[in-house]
Structure of Inositol-1-monophosphatase:
Amino acid sequence: MLYGSRRRDRFECSEVIDVSCRPLPVNTLHQDGTGRFPVTRLFVMEDWSDCLDVAVQIARRAGQVVQSAVKQEKQVSSKSTPTDLVTEADHQVEELIISTLRDKYPSHRFIGEESSAAGVKCELTDAPTWIIDPIDGTCNFVHRYRNHHILCLNHRVNMFLSSQHTILHFQFPHGGGEHRICCKERDVSKALILTEIGAKRDPATLDIFLGNMKKLLSAPTHGVRIIGSSTLALCHIASGAAEAYYQYGLHCWDIAAAAVIIREAGGCVMDTTGGPLDLMSRRVVAAGTREIADYVVKQLQPINYGRDDTDPDGLA
Ligand SMILES: O=P([O-])([O-])O[C@@H]1[C@@H](O)[C@H](O)[C@@H](O)[C@H](O)[C@@H]1O
Ligand SMILES: [Mg+2]
Ligand SMILES: [Mg+2]
């Protein structure tokens, strides 16, 4: 089981390690003088296994809501741009998840895609926080396109919950059990690379987006794919179906759950500059190997989408 208690402002956790679900004695942490506590081990402050059970049940219930909604007529509206779609099913699923969890865990905090779009501040504190994308790939959902959409929940104590592919019953287990293994390919000319377009479609953004794709296609790589769901695409890195993923314009709720799966499967997740992942930065590079991740980082010209915590509609 992937587990840990990561209080953002108290220490940096150097890695997520498998620990059993039992309280561990809190050892002395050696302050490194920078006010941060370099943690070589994670300390399970509390037993979170109950959260996992509750969340897997909600993921399944939400999946049933989505599965029945996909066959029905939808009321579709848009958010930050005309291509950033949302339906009543997105709202219904997010409301179901947050209301159930809030009843059960009144002290926990929530970051939800549709709550954020309605103006609720995206704020990560050291309180246990659920990061929720009720339907990732809403455009696919609206078009009933090969049913590529996925529900993702992440619990900010670095406990990955269930990310359930609602239509193909394609479920990534919560980190435990059979481990997913990333591709260990180091040769970019043998890599399949995934990306997503993001919501901006102005000519300048599209020129940069297409320029980045052209650079990666002419490496040459085996190919570049856009499947319409960043979370599902990131999960494909963890399952070894593709070697790398990059994107500007996704959100913390697209990244949070999948990043845990990828790390647990032995891959790497980072910022598009090659530095550590900043969950709120609206950009990511992930790969099965560091070599391919570093190659992708070197090809990219940045696209500015702002940040989830300061500029949620990303039209900076
Ligand atoms: O809105 P949603 O379907 O949850 O998530 C989508 C992401 O999965 C996709 O990668 C991105 O390009 C879209 O703009 C949108 O953010
Ligand atoms: Mg999404
Ligand atoms: Mg969504």
